[in-house]
User: Which sequence fits this backbone?
């Protein structure tokens, strides 16, 4: 079988693809809802949950929720155990250094964690109350 030379890709195309790859990165947030003695504790996440960097005016949107119901449905939280769920968001811009986790909802009780320091992996563990 004949061998072929490695194809050459135009530098402009490589740079364009690199930009698109950076734009498509995702941010993973593992969330802990601390255990309590209460029975019948219900939680959910709204699609209007964002990672917000106000210094550069950016909002990363919720893409996927794992192990938690999305509004209008509810997830029952077992008593006395920390409850973990995972959220996947659209990517943060390269220049983002800190951001807030913010659930923007038309009622009281939205989740909010302020001033999360950005890391290289874009995978985070936060505690929600």
Assistant:
């Amino acid at each position: 079988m004949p061998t072929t030379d490695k194809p050459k890709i135009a530098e402009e195309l490589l740079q364009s693809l690199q930009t698109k790859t950076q734009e498509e990165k995702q941010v993973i947030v593992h969330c802990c809802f601390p255990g309590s003695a209460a029975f019948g504790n219900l939680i959910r996440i709204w699609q209007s949950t964002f990672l917000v960097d106000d210094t550069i005016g950016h909002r990363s949107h919720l893409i996927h929720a794992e192990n938690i119901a999305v509004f209008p449905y509810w997830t029952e939280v077992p008593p006395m155990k920390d409850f973990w769920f995972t959220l996947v968001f659209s990517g943060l811009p390269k220049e983002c250094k800190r951001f807030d986790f913010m659930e923007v909802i038309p009622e009281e009780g939205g989740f909010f964690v302020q001033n999360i320091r950005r890391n290289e992996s874009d995978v985070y563990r936060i505690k929600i109350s």
